[in-house]
Design goal:
heterodimer; A: 323 residues; alpha+beta; 5-stranded mixed beta sheet; 19% helix; B: 203 residues; mainly alpha; 10 helices; 80% helix
Chain lengths: 323, 203
């Protein structure tokens, strides 16, 4: 038996990881700078934004809508410090802490599968497909807490029209970034990376469903899924795939990450439903983030309060089985 | 190492007493600064629960320490540790009943019956009540040989407490697994020594 086989590479020839990472960082930063300059020209980013990716950047050129106008917003600090984004770690504070150096630019999204022309679109072009709108939505996490978030984005339906899916397209699959170099949590096989989500075509086309690129009037923070994430307000938060790199149209229902992780606990539909408990905890009530220690729980609403807009999608379906 | 004399032991106990209050003081301090995070109730529940479990494991480590090293005097700290475990468990369940559910007894009853992680956690708490109530010298005298059998319940409390933690975690079980491993080690040491003792006695 060989003990301690010698490598052909002498140690001095191996590039230290830090230098290697620095180079990558430099290359990325350079690319980011160019792109930011271009984006600034489009009025997407202020000119100085490229100086520091983690800096908060204003988003301009979006219109306000009536969605959620009467809701009390969850404070910005809570929305951006209490996140589930396992690619950056499993504790709620990890995403904000570990995504500081993440640079979500340049970015492009591959449109694949059952479409007329599979192609790749840059984020800048994607955000020009339709005017950006602000949508104030409730977000209910499967864990039993909720927020009210002023997203900025465009209706997914607009992108789908642009993508021209074929008649075979029955589902849309969202594949997200899996880059263990930039996402420390993705080095741990806690979930089956890349994080993948999916919607039925009619769910994807519903006017409530958006692709968000911002919140609170600013470019989407890294910990919230920069640069592009899905928001489906009548479903549990985990349906909202973050850092989307591929949108794939399919004839068959896609396997999604949480269904793979726990098929008894998480379903493909994942509609907010106070009458169907998580096997381990209640879904009847929720804690609204942003309250004090003396704020009581609130009753969870069917379809997170969006029944009027989406209940018809599920007529005749047993929502206990299709949880 | 020489065992501490009466005075030294008193000092050690006083020191530990203050140390055991640090987690509570921290919560109060953070609460006053409005620094308990986005979900303060979850923070308090997590913190008090974690400390109750950690102190329980400390409570269970005095005997293995004696078995392994022969150092017996720390066993004198065990009652205080056990009572602090109960203290944090009380804070934990008070947070749950009061802040989290606002004395909605019907909801709480449903939660306990329907959800195994709540059930085992609640059971662990209920089982620890008689242990706390019978912790005085007078009760030890009164219960005599029954006291020891009664207090063996602590092993069940510990197992249920670890299960409670394990079952409530969504996916990343690293932390509960750590506690489970420590508990398994502590219980194994006892088991090995008691088996050896029996063998030695030729039973």
């Amino acid at each position: 038996m060989l003990i301690g086989k010698k490598s052909d590479i002498i140690p001095s020839e191996i590039t230290p990881q830090s230098v290697y990472e620095d180079r990558r960082q430099f290359i990325k930063a350079a690319g980011f700078g160019l792109l930011a300059t271009a984006a600034a020209g489009y009025g997407l980013l202020p000119g100085h934004a490229w100086a520091a990716a983690e800096q908060r950047r204003k988003l301009t050129g979006y219109s306000k809508t009536a969605y959620g106008a009467d809701e009390k917003l969850t404070p910005y600090d809570d929305v951006t410090s209490y996140n589930n984004y396992y690619e950056f770690g499993t504790s709620k504070s990890d995403p904000a802490e570990h995504s500081k150096l993440f640079k979500p630019t340049p970015w492009s999204v591959a449109i694949e599968g059952e479409v007329k022309n599979p192609r790749t679109i840059t984020l800048e072009d994607l955000l020009k497909i339709a005017p950006l709108e602000e949508r104030i939505y409730r977000m209910r996490c499967v864990e039993g807490w909720s927020m009210v978030i002023p997203w900025i984005g465009l209706p997914l339906a607009q992108l789908i029209k642009w993508a021209e899916p074929t008649a075979n397209a029955k589902f849309v699959e969202f594949v997200t970034l899996d880059d263990s170099l930039r996402m420390p949590g993705a080095r741990v096989p806690i979930l089956d990376w890349p994080y993948t989500e999916g919607l039925r075509m009619d769910e994807a086309m519903n006017p409530l469903t958006i692709l968000a690129a911002g919140l609170y009037g600013e470019v989407l923070p890294n910990q919230n899924g920069a640069p592009l994430r899905l928001v489906v307000p009548w479903k549990y938060g985990f349906k909202g795939a973050k850092a989307i790199v591929k949108i794939r149209f399919r004839e068959t229902m896609p396997q999604t990450t949480w269904v793979k992780a726990g098929p008894r606990e998480y379903g493909f539909y994942a509609n907010v439903n106070p009458t169907v408990d998580h096997p381990r905890w209640t879904q009847a009530s929720e804690r609204r983030i942003g309250g004090s220690v003396f704020s009581p729980r609130m009753k969870t609403q069917m379809f997170n309060g969006y029944a009027e807009q989406v209940a018809h999608l599920y007529t005749g379906m047993d929502l206990r089985k299709n949880f | 190492m020489l065992p501490p004399n009466r005075k030294q032991l008193g000092l050690i106990k006083a020191g530990l007493f203050l140390l055991a209050l640090v987690p509570l003081a921290r919560l109060i301090w953070l609460g006053m600064q409005d620094d308990l995070g986005a979900n303060p109730i979850e923070f308090i529940e997590r913190s008090t629960g974690t400390w109750a479990l950690a102190i329980l494991l400390i409570t269970l480590s005095f005997t293995p320490l004696r078995l392994l090293t022969g150092t017996a005097w720390p066993v004198q700290l065990r009652r205080m540790a056990g009572l602090f475990m109960f203290f944090y468990a009380c804070l934990h369940i008070t947070t749950y009943v009061w802040l989290d559910h606002w004395f909605d007894w019907q909801e709480i009853a449903k939660d306990i019956v329907k959800h195994p992680y709540v059930l085992v956690g609640f059971t662990a708490f209920v089982l620890s009540v008689p242990l706390a109530l019978t912790s005085s010298n007078a009760m030890i005298k009164r219960l005599r040989q029954h006291w020891k059998s009664l207090h063996r319940l602590v092993y069940l409390v510990a197992i249920f407490a670890v299960l409670h933690f394990w079952w409530l975690v969504k996916k990343d079980i690293t932390e509960p697994m750590l506690y489970a491993m420590v508990l398994a080690a502590l219980l194994s040491i006892r088991l090995i020594f008691s088996l050896r003792k029996r063998k030695g006695q030729g039973v």
